[in-house]
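Before surveying the methods themselves, let us examine one representative protein, written as a sequence plus integers encoding its fold.
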Amino acid sequence: MHPQVDILLNYAATATPFVSSTGQAFLSLPLDAFSQQVCSVYSPRIRDWLIASFYRDHHQPPSPYALRQTIGTLAARANCSGTSLSVERHVAARGNPHHADAILLDLANPHGEIVEITLDGWQISTDPAAPFLHSRGNLELPSPHQQPDTSHQLLCTLQHLLNLSTADSHRALVWLLSALRPQGPHPILVLEGPPSSGKSTAARMLRALIDPSAAPLFSLPVSEPDLLALATLNWVLAFDHTGPLRPNISATLCRLATGAAIRQREKGDGREPTVQEIHRPILIAAAPGWNPDESLADRTLTIRLAPLTTTTRRTEAALWQGFETIRPTLLAALCDATALALRAKPEQLPVQRRPDAAPTPPNGPSPPSPKANQPSSTPCTKLPPRQSSTPSPSF
């Protein structure tokens, strides 16, 4: 064996090789005693880690030949390890993903913490058997912070921050809870409104509650491969200033909302491509010319923002300051609602389907969604208190 290969494999001895449920070779790199970083064996991160480890001790990089041989050996170890784990992005299920025993939300922090949501509530923990993928630009979620009997006040505040009506706040809540669902289908949330009505700011805040990113809003790609590539790197897909849609992009959005099969071949992997199904919560800030076809429109929840007035207009700095203040507690309230949904029995779930209705949130009920032209008798949406002993058919 090449001496540099032997040295590189010794560095990798601290990592745990395994194969994903889709047949992709992975390494789990220990960060500390309780957390790990999961990377594909062929990823640039593994190459950088091996090069940096070798350079630290030998003050020169390893040869390209030694690096290729090491990566090939690590891939073979992973493929023959006998350990297969499901590698997810940001949200995962324990058990049947359609009727999960627990929902796992990745906080993406340096400690490898996750929120484990079960029938009995939720807790923050670490779990090496629940690996999550991270991409550059992903930001960490704040740890949920529970404040009893404040859920309805928080949602009133969010409704005010996002410039939503009561009925539209129900639709936003349905989408947020669906984004915590580990399996599709997911409704596509569309924000409509005149210019300067706060669509982009509302879209950024909604994404930041579930899947914060350094670049939260994208331009909608014009090709299907670009759109699918974007979906492999993000959990929530949020698009800004979206106007007329090409038929192929509209069809791909429909597939991503319900589940799209993709084929991937990693650079350096000479085996057959891996096949996996991905599904994503999608958020669209519409622009003039927005023209969803019938198939896409049937998958959307539409929120119509009112024009901002001198009394409702606030500076963006003030909006974000208020949002960051309530974000940890609002995330806790969403986790409470998800735990309540897990406790609900299938026969308790309401069966109703309208063009503006969303699929059921995580394995449980969804709040009633009033029609846009129907006034609501309540001032704002309410979430249930934590540790409720009796499941309810609505949030």
Notes: DSSP finds ten helices and 14 strands in the chain. The CA atoms of residues 336 and 386 lie 5 Å apart. Confidence is low (pLDDT under 50) at residues 357-379, 381-395. The two ends are 62 Å apart (CA to CA).
